[in-house]
Amino acid sequence: MILQDVLTATIFAATPLLLAALGGLLSERGGVVNIALEGIMLFGAFAAAAVTLWTGSPLLGIIAGVLTGALVGALHGTACIYLRADHVISGIAVNMFAASGTILLLKVVYGTKGSSPQLGSLKLLGVPLTVHLAVVALAAVPLVWFLLYRTRFGLRLRACGEYPEAADAVGINVHGYRLAGVVLSGVLAGLAGVFLVMTAGSFAKHMSAGRGYIALAALVFGRWRPVAVAIGCLVFALGRGVQDVLELEIGIPPQLSEMMPYLLTLLVLAVWPLIRRGRSAEPPAALGRPFVRG
Amino acid sequence: MTRITVVVVVLALALSAIRAGKEEAARKDVPARVAVVLSVGGLGDGSFNDLAFAGLKRAITEFGVEGIVGEPADHAEDEKYLELYAREGYDLVVAVGFLMKSKLDKVAPHYPETKFLLIDNLSDCENVRSYSFREHEGSFLVGALAALKSKTGTIGFVGGIEVDLLRKFLAGYVKGARYVRPDIRILKSWAGSFNDPVKGKEKALAQHRQGADVIYQAAGATGNGVIRAASEEGFYAIGVDANQNHMAPGSVLTSMVKHVDEAVYRSSGDIAGGEMSCGILDVGIAEGMIGWALDKYNAALLTEAMKARIEEISAKIVSGEIVVTPDLPGEFE
Would the pLDDT of B257 be above 90? Predict the structure, then answer.
């Protein structure tokens, strides 16, 4: 009974993390650092809420959230790839822009700075949309793995992240592949934002609440590999689920589960080089390095 | 160069003349000028700040005062706003929220002619009126109602961040529930955030799976997730601060109402009437500043017996027969 409660809580807590972390993975395996996940989620969430309220159709809301995520991803990608901006700074800019930009939009569209109005029923075929999205998130794990390791696109994307000069030498459009990676990243992070809105039933300012950063932690925890990253997300979410349930049985302070993702990530960063004899937790070799055709 | 300087000087003079004229006009026409400095979060929080604004709007229509609202972007700006309105000669400057105290204590002594109103904290300054609400009394009422309504014998509480202010809400809730039903089981969760409705929903669902069928939330926007969970899963939520019954008609059992609007409205009336007393006002049900919400959205959820029982308890709190203290029973620490 309690086990089932914990599992249910875990899967729903893991869904936005999985989507955002797999998104971050596609961007970073192509060589573009993406700490903008948090901001992309917020924009995707706002778009999903606004379009659902406007059209009355949650499906259109989902599409809007995904497209908005892709657009913001493209913005971040363009800045990093073509304008050679520092990836971290561009990402921070996106996050800050999203944090205040969505509040401004709330003010302009709904006249408030707190939350949007409540959305209506959020079901598809009699099942809550959050369940559909949770299935999509779980299915995304093997799909991203397949894309990266079993398709020509994936091979080329990884080449752009590891050794762009070599990729370029064999005629791969490095900038194009990197941009595609960041845009896909935006699609998945936008979908993570959609999930938040479909769960809460409205948009609230700052509602991503650090999930984009936890997803980044999962990305490092899983050393940029889809299955390991997914396990990271599930472990972090399990912490949340256990916390939600155990807090009711025995009072454990919520701060404990809040810090767990970061603590575990630090542990992986510190311990991995020890067990792999000095090899660091190997990010893609060209991560964060702009590619200039020589 | 000289020509530009002349133009600038003339413009500046003209502007200041217009402004002075305006201020003079304002002083003549209105009984008082009231400025409200909101706490971070600003308008649209569906609760605290919106209530303060509603009180100001009522004062503008009913007393004819002139009003302005300041929305600091973060706590560092609070002092700037308080100072600004005091300097501009507003008769009453309202500081909303307990975090404003330290800033108000700095600003108020410099403007002895100005009156200040502090909501949710206590100040010793001579020209400040402070309102301290006995939220535990209202929480006692909704706790009693939750216990009366619960079929499972388990009810819940989801709080935002564990601070003393919110512990008063939990304390009253627990005591009220146990007053009508000593064997009631009460679950509590702290979400750790006021801006995470997703987490609020997760906490509420976890409590619901453990049997809770009425859940009281005091958690800002995080609490919206609790109300959402109630409407989707078919249990009851209890609103807080403002009347939130309308947010999910039929799923919000009642709301614990804290009349921040009354505090702003009454004080504006006092200042417009020429005399506003200062000092600390400790207010609760007896003063009509704390209560529970009954309207068309929740009327069908309550039986006559329940309403009568809550009114009876409310009357007993007013008469002093029931004394609700804000301390938390040990097992909820």
Answer: yes
Does the residue B67 lie in any domain?
yes
Kindly give, in sequence order, each residue whose CB lies less than 8 Å from that of residue A226, ignoring residues fewer than 6 positions away: A22, A25, A141, A144, A145, A148
8 Å CB contact of B199 and A209: yes
pTM above 0.95, yes or no: no
- Enclosing domain of residue B313: 135-258+303-332
- B210 with A245: Cβ contact below 8 A: yes
Same domain, residue pair B241 and B266: no
The pLDDT score that the predictor gives to residue A1 is: 66
One-character DSSP codes across A197-254: HHHHSS-BTTTTTTHHHHHHHHHHHTTT-HHHHHHHHHHHHHHHHHHHHHHHHS---H
Q: Both B325 and B214 in a single domain? A: yes
Whether residue B171 sits in one domain with residue B40:
no
Together in a domain, B156 and B275: no
> Residues B295-323: what's their mean pLDDT?
94
Q: Which residues of A touch B198 (CB under 8 A)?
A: 16, 196, 199-200, 207, 209
Which CATH number fits the domain that encloses residue B92? 3.40.50.2300
Give pLDDT tens digits for A73-131: 999 999 999 998 899 999 999 999 999 999 999 889 988 778 888 888 888 888 889 99
Low-confidence ranges of chain A (pLDDT < 50): none
For residue A199, which residues of chain B lie inside 8 Å, CB to CB? 197-198, 201, 225, 228
Q: In chain A, which residue's Cα lies nearest the Cα of B185? A: A248
Domain span holding position A226: 2-118+128-275
CATH number of A137's domain: 1.10.3470.10
Please compute, for residue B268, the number of CA atoms within 13 A of its CA located in the half-sphere on the CB side: 29
Same domain flag for B98 and B205: no
Chain centroid offset of residue B12 CA: 42
Cα torsion angle, A152, A154, A157, A158, sign: negative
Instruction: Judge whether residue B258 has pLDDT over 50.
Output: yes
pLDDT tens figures, A124-157: 888 889 999 999 999 999 999 999 999 999 999 9
Identify the pLDDT of residue A247: 77
Residue keyed to tokens 């699609």: A187
Show the beta-strand stretches assigned E in A32-161: 123-124, 127-128
CB proximity B333 to A under 8 Å = yes
Q: Domain count of chain B? A: 2
Kindly determine whether residue A200 and residue B197, on different chains, have CB atoms separated by under 8 Å.
yes
Residues B118 and B49 in one domain: yes
What pLDDT does residue B273 have?
86
| CA dist B231 → A121, B44, B49, B236 (Å) | 10, 22, 25, 7
What is the ipTM for the molecules in this complex? 0.87
Residue A114 is nearest to which of B45, B203, B210, comparing CB atoms?
B45
- Find the CB nearest B44 among A106, A199, A245: A106
**Nearest one of B86, B76, B90, B75 to B110, comparing CA atoms:** B86
Interface contact B163, partner A, CB < 8 A? no
The whole-angstrom distance between B48's CA and the closest CA on chain A is 11
Query: In the predicted model, is pLDDT for residue B1 greater than 50?
Result: no
Residue B293 inside a domain? The answer is no
Same domain, B45 and B82: yes
Residue B4 placed within a domain: no
Residue A31, φ and ψ in degrees, nearest 5 = 110, 0
- Asked whether the beta carbons of residue A202 and residue B209 sit closer than 8 angstroms, the reply is no
Q: What is the count of structural domains for chain A?
A: 1
Q: Match 């390791």 to its residue by tokens.
A: A149
Distance (Å) from the alpha carbon of B328 to chain A's nearest alpha carbon: 15
